[in-house]
Amino acid sequence: MIMLPLHGSVALVTGGANGLGRATALALAESGARVGVLDLRTTDALGPDIAVLTGDVAEEGVVDAALTELEQRFGPVDILVNDAADYPTAGLLEMSAEAFRHVFDVNVTGLFLACQAFARHYLAAGLTSGRIVSISTGSVRSPRPRGSAYASSKAAVETISATLAMELGPLGITSNVVSPGYIDVRGFSDANPDRASDDLRAALTASIPTGRAGRPADIAHAIRFLCLPESEHLNAAVLAVDGGSGAGRYVMPSPAAAPSPAAAVPAGHA
């Protein structure tokens, strides 16, 4: 019998009913882990080694209860994947304060509560090795209009993750981030299927040097890598999975449309 690399591990994936979270739960299970999916949405059974739980990570006590349920069913949880997120698209003049706060309630406070509950259960169980992987976005470094709430909340996620890497590293828990670029989740999610137009999708894909949009499996594989025993010395890392779109200005105006470089770019600026 071949021993799968995550055999014996138990993982909790928040926001795992759709998209990246769903792909991650399946990838971890395929690698031998037993997995709990915590989401506001219900979802069909994903397999015998995946428990489906319902709850809001922003509510205090919800993740704690989910961890207790997983411990009773599968054993102590040694992997936490923070994928649950609220990501509205709205500009400064139209977004309400309530909507802005909700993004931070889910993306930041919810992550904090999940990590806190995970660390407490980890210590109570006497574990010596654990993984926290949180999902960020390339918009942290390259923001877009109408995305200030989401991008700034994910910047906070990266800062929290680095802080936890220092606090929890001595306990055997690593804390890392996967930062996706443009990921086409159509066919893998029923949440907001029409968020982007075909023209926008084409423009985003044109900016990716590898020539294709990312897939949920690309993110799931990166998360799985950070959960493997071989990754134990990776801590406080931000792993960009974007096909190289964050490397630089891959798409530039055509020569005919571009202004003269001397006229367009003042000396010393780019």
UniProtKB/TrEMBL annotation:
> A single Pfam family, by name?
adh_short_C2
Matching InterPro entries: KR_dom, NAD(P)-bd_dom_sf, SDR_fam
Give the Ketoreductase domain ranges: 9-186
Which residues does UniProt call coiled coil? Answer: none
Q: Which PANTHER family match?
A: OXIDOREDUCTASE (PTHR42760:SF123), SHORT-CHAIN DEHYDROGENASES/REDUCTASES FAMILY MEMBER (PTHR42760)
Instruction: Please give the family membership noted in the entry.
Output: Belongs to the short-chain dehydrogenases/reductases (SDR) family.
Protein name as catalogued: NAD(P)-dependent dehydrogenase (Short-subunit alcohol dehydrogenase family)
What is the organism of origin for this protein? Microlunatus capsulatus
Query: Taxonomic lineage of this organism?
Result: Bacteria, Bacillati, Actinomycetota, Actinomycetes, Propionibacteriales
